[in-house]
Write a structure and sequence with these properties.
By secondary structure, the protein is an alpha+beta fold. It has 11 helices and 12 strands. Helix 1 runs antiparallel to helix 2 and helix 1 runs parallel beside helix 5. The termini are far apart.
């Protein structure tokens, strides 16, 4: 090769490289502007509109139309357009392009037999470049026009292809991000609704216990009031005794003995001590009931601490006692040593209360017995609550842990008690199962790890695992 030929070849290579650099520069500029648009927009369609405005900075065109295509029926709807009278040509555009979903460069629209427009603006357009735009959820078609015949060259096609690919992939990520945000918002709403349902179920249980608890409190209070009257009489006698002794000018031993005997001092002293002891016992009973109610009704169910299972069960029994005592006797078979686990006492108390209520209500026309058994090994605590009630049909047994399922008459059950109990046990890393026979009774078995991996996640009654009934 001659020197000139070598120089010409090098010059040609430089021109090719320069063209590639220009294309990359233009594309990089589009990318930077596109990323800036992503940060400023919060919807797919506004972002697409912004994208083809950015595209106009790199490719000269006089008009643009973006339409959304429904894949099921291939109907098109206008997303945005640079000219106000664009609806009229959408049908014609889709006819021209249908069913082609590839990039197409039309040299002269007026040479196409199907291109028939009456609008002066669109009649002045000659060249058209169109390309599909796909995201993770939608399909679009972008059209750009020019008044110049053959306005779009290979450089424009390459640049448009690369930018549209970038736009589709970017918007897909944008849509996924928005979807995750919406999903999180929905999960938060679901969690809030579930917490309201859980608290409502707890308040319903409190309402069910209200009359019985009032009766349980009224008995010791009545006794305390009666004893206060007796104690007041005794104090009055003590006062008379003291005043009588004060009135004596000279108190001899015999006078003191006679006065004490007259006022029955020994009997007053013993009786007053007994009254105070009985009043203290009654007040302690009221205190236990109120403390149990406060623990159960406490809105903060997230506090984690060490729990004595036996103590928790006994506290819950005190709260539920008025619902139980008329229907059943309680047999306790507690572990000889205290069973200490880590958990949320308010939530676990709600579980035991639901099971005690269900057991008491299941007993009919017989001497009822509710049996409570606790056992433990190194890792787990095991609680069994059994009754000799009416039992549950096999076809219903697999549904009793489902939210809103209830066998009780309308207005007497929410269908959330056992669903909430199941969710609480599972959140504590445990298991709850049930076995039952008609007219024989029902047994609930609970396994709780002593050291569960508890988190701050909200209690969910709709996302719990399926229970296997024994």
């Amino acid at each position: 090769m001659t020197t000139n030929e070598i120089l010409l070849e090098k010059l040609h290579l430089l021109q090719v490289h320069n063209l590639a650099l220009e294309e990359n520069r233009a594309f990089n500029s589009l990318i930077l502007d596109g990323l800036d648009a992503i940060l400023k927009n919060d919807s797919t369609e506004t972002l697409l509109t912004e994208f083809f405005n950015i595209l106009q900075q790199a490719i000269s065109f006089s008009a643009a139309i973006l339409i959304k295509i429904n894949p099921s029926d291939e109907l098109s709807t206008l997303v945005t357009a640079s000219h106000p009278h664009s609806d009229a040509i959408i049908t014609q555009l889709t006819v021209l392009d249908k069913p082609n979903r590839n990039i197409k460069n039309v040299f002269n629209l007026h040479q196409l037999p199907n291109w028939q427009v009456t609008d002066p603006f669109w009649n002045s357009q000659h060249a058209m470049l169109t390309t599909p735009v796909s995201t993770s959820t939608e399909s679009y078609q972008l059209y750009i026009f020019s008044e110049t015949i053959g306005a779009f060259n290979q450089h424009d096609i390459t640049l448009m292809q690369r930018f549209v690919s970038f736009a589709g992939n970017t918007i897909s990520q944008f849509e996924k991000r928005n979807l995750l945000v919406k999903q999180k918002e929905m999960e938060e709403k679901q969690s809030n609704i579930e917490q309201v349902l859980i608290n409502s179920e707890k308040m319903a249980s409190l309402g069910q216990m209200a009359a019985g608890v009032a009766h349980e409190i009224n008995n010791p209070l009545s006794y305390i009031v009666s004893n206060i009257q007796n104690l007041a009489y005794n104090l009055e006698q003590f006062s008379h005794l003291i005043n009588t002794l004060k009135a004596e000018k000279a108190i001899t031993q015999q006078t003191l003995v006679d006065t004490l005997q007259h006022y029955q001092f020994d009997e007053l002293q013993t009786d007053s001590s007994d009254i105070i002891a009985e009043m203290t016992e009654g007040a302690d009973r009221v205190k236990e009931i109120v403390q149990g109610l406060r623990q159960f009704a406490h809105p903060d169910q997230t506090q984690i601490g060490d729990i004595d299972i036996t103590e928790l069960i006994d506290n819950t029994l005190r709260v539920a006692w008025n619902e139980i005592k008329y229907n059943a006797n309680v047999e306790k078979n507690y572990n000889t040593e205290p069973i200490i686990i880590t958990g949320r006492s308010t939530q676990l108390s709600q579980v035991f209360l639901n099971l005690f209520f269900n057991a008491a209500q299941a007993i009919c026309d017989k001497v009822g017995v509710i049996s409570i058994t606790t056992k433990a090994d190194k890792k787990n605590a095991y609680i069994t609550i059994a009754d000799n009630g009416c039992g549950i049909d096999n076809d219903k047994l697999n549904k009793i842990f489902d939210p809103f399922y209830t066998t009780k008459p309308i207005g007497q059950g929410t269908g959330l008690g056992l669903a909430i109990s199941k969710a609480i046990i599972e959140q504590h890393g445990g298991l709850i199962s049930v076995k039952s026979q008609l007219n024989q009774g029902t047994t609930f078995n609970i396994t709780l790890p002593k050291k569960p991996n508890l988190t701050d996640d909200a209690l969910s009654i709709l996302n719990a695992k399926k229970i296997t009934n024994e």
